[in-house]
Write a structure and sequence with these properties.
Radius of gyration: 14 Å
Strand content: over 45%
Largest sheet: 3 strands, antiparallel
Oligomer: single chain
Structural class: mainly beta
Number of strands: 5
Helix content: under 10%
Length: 87
Amino acid sequence: MGLSFNKLGRPSSSISGLADKARRWEINRTELRAISSDNKLAKFGPMEIYVMETSPDCPSLLGRDILEKYDLKLVCDIKNKTLYLED
């Protein structure tokens, strides 16, 4: 998602994974925006979101909480090497 973790301030907590811990930030009153395939702007929020620190081999994705809240599906098109949201 292109966030600068340095600009987020102090993390609110950390999450333990299989091999390590990841820092987590809580961001209040956030609006998520997406461009649809027909170039229309879709807005979600305002809402509270959690951002977790990622590494180059683990890209960031929207969490299941956001997908469930807005009844979205995360679709992976292996052939075309794309991920997209579907409602």
